[in-house]
């Protein structure tokens, strides 16, 4: 063998080795996403143990939810994106059908009609399905259309968004309806929505907000907005949550009072300290340093998710991954914003930190879709 043939053989060997999928790709697992999710979940279990006043039974239930959620993520990552693309219209239609059933035969709890009882299975909340069904449907519809989308395409997409959003808002569940709507709007934006349409939407939002305030929003929702503007007006009533949350956050200082040393949550001054307001309990014990570390993990997770969307060559996968990434950011921002007093209280849990099984499984299913579109695309390119 000549030296030139030897060099060519070596180059061919290296090229074949580079093209071979890695172990992570064969398992359809993204190591960066997985490690970041495990780190955030570990923080969640740690702070939940303290925020629940050391209720080990609650922590164990949360661990079971994490186990189910990671299983769902891994299983969903094994399925090719073409399968999800094919079933997207059926999944969306099923979600809308279930939301209509909620209106007809749904269970009423705490003044809201949001659940359906399935014999032998228990109660389900169909609005959770739309957190995935909405971005999947919008990505499916827009990926087959021209870019930037025409006025007709935008109008049809808005119809796809508004139908389930209106049904969810009527339950009433304004927080979830806004989250579902944002996941669809993100797909529309990522599809190349012209700036003149974006500007027109911003101008139209002013009379829309006024209309919703007058004819759509319930009295308790209006109270939340007014409380945001002036929580001190009723500190022992509607302003109690925000006031106690700010006290807990401020008392943590730079490094916090120490693990298991929080007083606002342990003495039950902080309402919903293990669910919606858990970041306040975390801030009280770990301070600005601890919260900054948690936010760094969140931002790294967001950056990795957006990178997966950016490098994907398939329009459906790219739009879906981008929407899921930005929706995750909205969940995080809304919770931190409402606990910090810059947004109204809308009952949105902090991803993977707040107690609750359904939200965790839904979020992890979204990351299963992200991993799916990334690893399967890598394998075929």
Briefly say what this structure is:
The chain is mostly helical and 381 residues long.
Which runs of at least 5 residues are low in confidence (pLDDT < 50)? 12-19
Assembly of the depicted chains? single chain
Task: Encode the helix/strand succession as letters.
Answer: HHHHHEEEHHHHHHHHH
Name the average pLDDT: 87
The order of strands across the largest sheet is 1-2-3
Described by strand count, sense and barrel closure, the largest sheet is:
3 strands, antiparallel
Q: Quickly give the structural class.
A: mainly alpha
Estimated helix fraction: over 70%
Please provide a written account of the structure:
This protein is mainly alpha-helical and 381 residues long. The chain has helices at residues 3-19, 23-27, 31-51, 56-78, 81-105, 126-143, 151-169, 174-190, 195-216, 219-229, 240-252, 278-311, 315-340, 357-380, and strands at residues 107-109, 112-118, 122-124. The chain has a 3-stranded antiparallel beta sheet with strand order 1-2-3, covered by helices on one side. Strand 1 (107-109) and strand 2 (112-118) form a beta hairpin. Helix 3 (31-51) runs antiparallel to helix 12 and helix 5 crosses helix 7. The two termini are 33 Å apart. Residues 12-19 have low confidence and may be disordered.
Topology:
Elements: H1 3-19, H2 23-27, H3 31-51, H4 56-78, H5 81-105, E1 107-109, E2 112-118, E3 122-124, H6 126-143, H7 151-169, H8 174-190, H9 195-216, H10 219-229, H11 240-252, H12 278-311, H13 315-340, H14 357-380
Antiparallel strand pairs: 1-2, 2-3
Helix pairs in contact: 3-4, 3-12, 4-14, 5-6, 5-7, 6-7, 6-8, 6-13, 6-14, 7-8, 8-13, 11-12, 12-13, 13-14
């Amino acid at each position: 063998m000549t030296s030139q043939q030897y060099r060519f053989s070596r180059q061919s060997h290296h090229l074949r080795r580079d093209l071979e999928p890695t172990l992570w790709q064969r398992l359809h697992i993204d190591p960066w996403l997985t490690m970041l999710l495990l780190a955030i979940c570990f923080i969640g279990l740690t702070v939940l143990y303290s925020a629940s006043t050391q209720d080990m039974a609650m922590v164990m239930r949360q661990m079971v939810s994490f186990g189910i959620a990671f299983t769902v993520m891994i299983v969903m990552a094994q399925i090719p994106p073409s399968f999800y693309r094919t079933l997207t219209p059926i999944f969306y239609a099923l979600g809308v059908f279930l939301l209509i059933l909620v209106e007809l035969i749904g269970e009423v709890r705490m003044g809201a009609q949001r659940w359906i009882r399935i014999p032998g299975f228990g109660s389900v909340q169909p609005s959770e399905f739309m957190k995935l069904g909405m971005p999947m449907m919008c990505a499916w519809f827009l990926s087959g259309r021209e870019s930037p989308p025409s006025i007709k395409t935008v109008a049809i997409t808005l119809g796809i968004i508004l139908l389930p959003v209106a049904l969810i808002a009527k339950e009433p569940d304004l927080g979830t309806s806004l989250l579902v709507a944002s996941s669809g709007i993100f797909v529309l934006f990522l599809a190349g929505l012209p700036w003149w349409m974006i500007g027109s939407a911003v101008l139209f939002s002013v009379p829309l907000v006024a209309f919703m305030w007058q004819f759509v929003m319930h009295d308790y929702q209006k109270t939340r907005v007014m409380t945001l503007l002036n929580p001190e007006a009723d500190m022992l009533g509607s302003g109690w949550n925000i006031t106690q949350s700010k006290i807990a956050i401020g008392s943590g200082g730079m490094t916090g009072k120490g693990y298991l040393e929080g007083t606002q949550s342990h003495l039950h001054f902080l309402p919903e300290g293990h669910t919606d307001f858990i970041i306040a309990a975390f801030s009280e014990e770990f301070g600005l340093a601890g919260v900054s570390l948690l936010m760094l993990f969140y931002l790294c997770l967001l950056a990795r998710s957006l990178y997966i969307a950016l490098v994907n060559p398939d329009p459906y996968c790219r739009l879906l991954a981008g929407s899921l990434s930005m929706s995750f950011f909205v969940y995080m921002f809304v919770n931190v914003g409402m606990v910090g007093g810059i947004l109204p209280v809308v009952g949105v849990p902090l991803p993977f930190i707040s107690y609750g099984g359904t939200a965790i499984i839904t979020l992890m299913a979204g990351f299963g879709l992200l991993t799916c579109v990334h690893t399967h695309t890598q394998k075929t390119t």
